[in-house]
Design a protein that fits this description.
- By secondary structure, this protein is mostly helical.
- It has one domain.
- The longest helix is centred in the middle third of the chain and has 21 residues.
- The chain is globular, with a radius of gyration of 14 Å.
Length: 92
């Protein structure tokens, strides 16, 4: 149970930092989406880090790489909104 709680905390902090570093009108907002953004970013950073040999199997990304991963996910999200693949709920 402690591992899941740690993932949620790291994901939430990484998501908040990523949203602060990349402000925009089409960012996913709210506690849940910010946490999901950070968790997906951490998984992305872990997968890429393990693929290039930076992390061993079973080793996860830290705060900095999780934040970088969340920034990448946020960039992809913004590009999908800009191209109209995902609807922008904030635009009327």
């Amino acid at each position: 149970m402690g591992g899941i709680l740690w993932i949620i905390i790291v994901g939430f902090v990484a998501g908040i930092i990523a949203r602060l570093l990349s402000p925009g009108p089409n960012n996913p907002s709210g506690f849940i989406l910010t946490t999901v953004l950070g968790i997906v970013g951490a998984f992305l950073a872990t997968a890429i880090g393990q693929a290039i040999g930076h992390y061993d199997a079973g080793q996860g990304a830290g705060f900095i790489t999780a934040t970088i991963g969340a920034l990448v996910v946020l960039f992809i999200w913004n590009r999908l909104v800009a191209n109209g693949v995902i609807p922008d709920m904030g635009r009327k």
